[in-house]
Amino acid sequence: MLTLRKSLVAMVTAAALATTASTFTANASAAPHAATRAALEAQVKAGHPGALIQVRDGNGVWNASAGVADLDTGRKRLPEDHIRIGSITKSFTSVVVLQLEAEGRLSLDDTVEKLLPGVVRGNGYDGRAITLRQLLNHTSGVFNYSDDENFEHMAREGWPEHRNDAKTPSELVATGLSNKPDFAPGKGWNYSNTNYVLAGMIIEKVTGRTYASEVERRVIKPLGLRETTLPGTSVKMPEPHGRAYSKLLLHETNPDAKIWDTTEITNTWVWAAGEIISTTGDVNRYFGALLGGKLLPAKQQKELLTTVPTPDKRYAYGLGLYRMDLPCGGYVWTHGGGVHGSTSEATSSPDGRHTMMFNANGDWATLEATEVVKAEYCGTTA
Q1: Where are the alpha helices (DSSP H) in 47-168?
Q2: Which residues form the Beta-lactamase-related domain (predicted)?
């Protein structure tokens, strides 16, 4: 989540740097990725306990890590480690919706009222004026429930006691709709997890199956993503995995804030907006297939990559993907994912032949994850 990732950033201290001294491991083909290696180490120097990356391009597969997977044991991060990928999940949700459109079971121009009668009404909302397309490209104006000041899973007071409280999609939507709209439908842009929870509910309404089963049937199994799961109410991580560490939003301006182990935590609070657990290898395989045109017919692929402007001129948003302009020219398709203790960035060249998946097991470093993207695709570091 781009907005979540930004909001999780906090100042790093000398003590944290001492605790997470950088150690680096890579395979023998590291030379072509020297700038990326430096950017990976910089993420650890900036505060993350550890960082992990896999790149797939014409030279093959390159895996590298810096820092540690576990602050207690000092274990290094492994390419096989499972990670919470956060809002990278949104592109999976969009793929399922677009496949349903290709099958004639819905249209991106259908209104939310048609697809979910009575769900988006009141407090300034009218589902008759909001389309499915507007949900997927964040132009609906629907308030982001995770920005609600009383939403306990965003680490306000009492978060430790609520970390594993299961949330239903209806509860998440209700939290979003209890706030006034950000703007009239189609009259602005604002990143909103509520949009993708509604999209997940639409998938279930149209298919009569669970959101998780549709993602598994349509994306995970066809691509052979054996390490990718949707955890539902489980708080456990598949093995192997490192630890995840967070300072929590409550302490975002406090450099001496307590570091929490957030490895085991419910993902129900993000559901279709960010629940997936995967590996760097599986995400790269998925992004390569997605941008390579292997998951959608040509018409729906064009819709996936049709963008709207965002307030940050470097980015435009499609349907679950950002188009990011590179400082060296050209662009890539990317999406970040930030949940407590896990910061990710998945990226691909426009043709799907050069993919990169980055993850850090912390959320308070002073460098954006996109600095790793610039290093990999431009060969320079900040």
Answers
A1: 89-102, 112-115, 132-136, 159-162
A2: 40-344
Rounded Cα distance, 360 and 45, in Å: 12
Q: Is the pLDDT of residue 376 over 70?
A: yes
Burial of 297 per CB tally in 10 Å (0-12, 13-18, 19+): middle
Rounded Cα distance, 108 and 131, in Å? 7
8-state DSSP, 12: -
Q: Which residues are tagged catalytic? A: 87
Q: By three-state DSSP, how is residue 246 classified?
A: strand
Over residues 2-61, the pLDDT tens digits come to 343 333 333 222 223 223 333 333 443 456 799 999 999 999 999 999 999 999 999 999
Q: What is the pTM of this model?
A: 0.91
Query: Residue 291 pairs with which residues in a beta bridge?
Result: none
Share of the chain above pLDDT 70, in %: 89
Q: Per residue in 121-157, is it b (16+ CB within 10 Å) or e — as a string? A: eeeebebebbbbbbbbbbbbbbbbbbbbeebbbbbee
Q: What φ, ψ does residue 161 adopt, rounded to 5°?
A: -80, -20
Tell me whether strands 355-360 and 50-57 are parallel, antiparallel or unpaired: antiparallel
